[in-house]
Specification:
With 355 residues, the chain is of the alpha+beta class. The chain folds into 3 domains: 1-159 and 209-294, no CATH class; 160-205; 295-339, no CATH class. The protein contains 11 helices and 12 strands. A hairpin with a 5-residue loop joins strand 4 and strand 5 (82-88). Helix 1 runs antiparallel to helix 3 and helix 5 (137-156) packs antiparallel against helix 7 (210-229). The mean pLDDT is 82. Residues 330-355 are annotated as: Disordered. This is Phage portal protein.
């Protein structure tokens, strides 16, 4: 995590998964089931001291940094309903399996190991059961070596901006006078002026060598390599050497589809497995609301809502709900606001035809 690219990737993925709202929906009506006991654990508070957002962030970070993954134990009441979710450190959890393959967990506590069934532990894990930092340890180590090397170069070495050569030997007093005069004449606000040299002296600027340029490119390549390990677009790690306005926007969509979707699906199944009974899962499902990630700008979002309203796919109150605005009276009618004027019909058109 002391490698900035790794820190950025871990925080980006885990915090984005944490901040996206997770809700329970009815499969038939598509309505959010806010009264279900699991809804508060997913959308509000995991327990009295941890929000649902903070728990998802912590467990996703655990899964990115630990091969075992992230774990939270479900605390139930006497009726078996889920009441709280408690994070447990991955180091205290052992993942085991019955002879038939059914998984179970043992958690080390002050009272000794405690066994939990697979329905009582929320478990999220990286692809293949291996954390990205484990699989990419060599790339991360090389990035850390680059950081250490450049630090030593600046700590122990010095490279001048230019060199003045003289055809004759100067004593120490003359060298010091020349240095003082040059600094007074060409430093600070006077930089960039015309230099006048006596006694046949020449000035040669020190430029970046091919080795220096290669070193800088290698550092950028390690950021890209770490981005590959976390399946994150390089621009999301602020490696913008090849970023443009158009491809940065496209990479943001790729971040949702390629990077986040597997994590969101893993969380949805973990929530369903632990917080819903098998019978409930037939009628209820957990899902993340990703509208904010799909909206690239206020103008694009407004245009999308306008199209949904005009085609009769959303009511005015549904649009207001998406904007976190309170509902309005009469806002639940599915009508096209661009063709409905609200004008009263012409009385002459309502008269019965002549017989």
């Amino acid at each position: 995590m002391q490698v900035p690219a790794v820190m950025c990737a871990v925080s980006l993925i885990s915090e984005t998964v944490g901040t996206l709202p997770a809700k329970l929906f009815d499969r038939q009506t598509r309505q959010a089931l806010t009264e279900h006991p699991a809804y508060a654990l997913m959308h509000g508070e995991a327990n009295e001291w941890t929000s649902a957002e903070a728990l998802r962030t912590a467990l996703t970070a655990d899964a990115l940094l630990n091969d075992k993954g992230g774990f939270a134990v479900v605390v139930r009441n006497g009726a078996g309903e889920p009441m709280e979710l408690h994070r447990v450190p991955p180091s205290s959890v052992s993942v085991l399996a019955e002879p038939d393959g059914e998984p179970f967990y043992t958690v080390a506590t002050d009272r000794g190991p405690v066994r939990y069934g697979f329905r009582d532990v929320v478990h999220v894990q990286s692809f293949g059961g291996r954390a990205p930092i484990t699989l990419a340890k060599n790339a991360i180590a090389l990035a850390a070596a680059f950081e250490s090397h450049i630090g030593k170069v600046f700590a122990n070495g010095a490279q001048p901006g230019g060199i003045i050569t003289s055809p004759k030997r100067l004593d120490e007093v003359a060298k010091q006078n020349l240095k003082t005069a040059w600094t007074d004449t060409h430093s600070g606000p006077k930089a960039g002026g015309v230099a006048l040299l006596d006694e046949g002296m020449l000035y040669q600027a020190v430029t970046m060598t091919l080795t220096d340029a290669q070193f800088a490119e290698n550092r950028l390549e390690q950021i890209r390599e770490i981005a590959r390990a976390f399946r994150t677009p390089p621009t999301m790690l602020f490696e913008l050497s090849r970023g443009t306005w158009s491809n940065t926007e496209e990479m943001a969509r790729q971040f949702l589809q390629v990077t986040l979707q597997p994590w969101l699906r893993s969380w949805e199944w973990s929530y369903s497995r632990c917080l819903l009974t098998p019978d409930e899962r037939r009628d209820v499902y957990a899902e993340f609301v990703i509208d904010d990630l799909l909206s690239t700008s206020h103008a694009a979002r407004a245009a999308a809502y306008g199209q949904y309203r005009s085609m009769g796919a959303m009511t005015a109150n549904e649009v207001r709900g998406g904007l976190n605005l309170p509902p309005l009276a009469g806002g639940d009618v599915l009508e096209n606001p661009y063709t409905t004027t609200g004008a009263k019909p012409d009385p002459a058109s309502e008269e019965a035809p002549n017989e």
